[in-house]
Amino acid sequence: MTEPVLLVEDLGVVLPAGADRAHAVQGISLSIAAGKTLCVVGESGSGKSVMATTVMGLLPRELRPTQGSIRLKGESLLTASAQRLRSLRGQAMGMVFQEPMTALNPVMSCGDQIEELLKTHTDWSAAQRRTEILRVLARVKLPDPERMVRSYPHQLSGGQRQRIVIAMAVILKPALLICDEPTTALDVTTQKEVLGLINELQSEQGMAVLFITHDMGVVAEIADEVLVMNQGLAVEYGACDAVLKRPQMDYTRMLLASVPGMTPPPARAACDGSALLRGDKVQKTYSSRDWIGRSRQTHALQGATLAVHAGETVGVVGESGSGKSTLARCLIRLIAPSAGQVHWGDAEVAQLLEGRLRPLRSQVQVVFQDPNRSLNPRRRVGDSIIEGAVNFGATLEDARRLAVDLMDKVRLPREGLLRYPSQFSGGQRQRLAIARALACKPRVLVADEAVSALDVSVQAQIMQLLRDIQRELGLGLLFITHDLRVAAQLCDRVIVMHQGEIVEQGPTARLYAQPEHDYTRRLLAAAPGAIA
Amino acid sequence: MALHTRLWRNSAFRFGVLVLAVLLALALTAPLLGTVDPSAMDSAHINTAAGERGEFALLDGNSVAHRFWMGTDNFGRDIYSRVLYGTRTSLLVASFTAVVAVAIGALLGMLAGYFRAVDAVLMRVMDGLMAIPAILLAIALVAALGATLWTVVVAIAIPEIPRVTRLVRSLVLTLREEPFVEAARALATPTPVILWRHVLPNAMAPLIVQGTFIAASAVLTEAILSFLGLGLPADVPTWGNIMAEGRVQFTQYPSNVLFPALFLVPTVLAINLLGDGLRDVLDPKFAKRAA
After folding, report:
1. B interface with A, Cβ–Cβ below 8 Å
2. Which of A358, A365, A374 sits opposite B179 (nearest CB)?
3. Domain B3-30+78-290 homologous superfamily, CATH
4. Which terminus of chain A has fewer Cβ atoms in its 10 Å neighbourhood, N or C?
């Protein structure tokens, strides 16, 4: 057996006093051989990123590793000098981060950024550097490398930026590639390409890959070995197949069970009757003028027609820029559509002024994506929840009683009404946002990526909550998501959007089994691997 | 950690609060601290040196034993009393100016940030105001309105308003896109309530910080106006007009300028430090550095 590229033994990192636990990570041991991929998987706060930054030697000053050892090809990293670490980074360890926009310097061209790395670590001539940069850019399959060298990060798409970051990470052929959630910010089709690319580069250069992710689907796709972490401790460590198919620990089992599958559950009885929320050829065009006054039009949404009935869940899926959020915002009239009609029950509201709209607003309510920003941080959650009810004429006393009922309904303690949003976790805040929406007794709930920012176990709970509430109140639910797996589990019908247009819609089971449109097929094929 | 503990741990904030607390105590208890009527003139004590003792003739004809801690000016008025009473004026002007500028600026800023139509017109007016040097504008306003406490406050506040408006507008432009503001719109909350309940509280921290800096510059501007003879009339003692009156004989009797300055400088410094401390603690961008 050859020596592993990375060997971590009994690593412990202490958190500063006053944190929610004593150790960021404790007693973590792992090893990766050349050409192998180890996936570290865990929910937020599991310590997986701290572990990766410790390996890179980039821990913030408040955190210090207190025990254990990290060896890269036999060389101890914890005792290495800052200077030695600096030269190892880039040369022996490459790094890819989650957000390619912040990983790149926005005021430096991509070529210059790669060149800077080469200047630091090599004594190559200018010509040699340039050939090497063009070679690596072509290797990461960026179109037109000559142009890419001159481009600035903001001129590239998210996927292209991530390829630049990967190019920087692998250009010096490091022995170890550390990827911290490299595809989390990307669309599924782009994610698939990037994962494929990392895989190819790995087999080409024989790198060991340490891959941090929260997504079990990604794990199934790329991992040779898996380390499951929770609360800073290793839960389970073993070969990918063994961990995913025969998990030994309860936590791993729970995590795997929470991952939504791609197979839709049996269809519920179809809903008919009149639609509660209906969009008819809804269109949104943004026009801007450039400096000589020529107008440029952007069609964010073109002729979208859909209806949501009582007791029915309609999913809208699409990648970023597909217009799904614009559609949602038109339907709840946060923005006015440029053309088309929007019906709330019997009322046509597409062009109503805010004053005329207000009395009708109780019918359609919304839950947003980001649990950190969907509640006013300066108000007690009780006040936030009763706001809608009071606006629609409830007395303060009735509204308070309603808020208590709603806290029971979303399964949060009643005392929570007096607290501020910062005292709740992300999942709990999402429950509060649902309670706030329900307080004005809506008939339709629009959920705009409402579970996308949550850990899988919490995601599963919120989806269950939405199902229960829908059954109890007979709500119509319009569920906007980029995640096909979530849509499969929750929705009766699914609408697929691409570049501002609805390309396909139909009952979930039919659409997933026999997609008709080419784009739907691509989207389904790109969804990260099911755990068979 | 609770907010007040975090604030108290900040040494700049602590220093600012302590100095201002002392000044406030001096201003409030001025009559009890061995002062005489700050406008009373005693022709027997003209340009007395600091620290001398004597009998001070009051306006009603009686006289009291008095120690001239800071000497007297060329009208025979007690500088110590004038400086202490001047503290009242300075603190009043500072706090009123900050409140007026922040209140009006916040209101205009919220209107400009939230309503597109208002924005274009209002911000051009503000740009125009900002093109005029603050002190010139204040001089013109005092000249036009006459000098009372309120007109001085207004004259100092108006040039500050565009800066506050800009700050609040930029905050509102980001806050109006926040999901909790959009959720409030979906809940049919009327726009003024949204501004008051959801937007303003979340813009408060930078506003308070800006308010302290306005207060500091108001102390200075008031002194400058008085020094130029455009501030409050001479019967209201302010640090500015004490210095202005002492200016002509500064070389012979420096105490007329020195003592008010010894109050003015720490006051401005303390308010600025207070503002720095508040900013370090309240603004997330500076929170890390302060930790």
Report:
1. 1, 178-180, 182-191, 197-198, 201-202, 204
2. A374
3. MetI-like (1.10.3720.10)
4. N
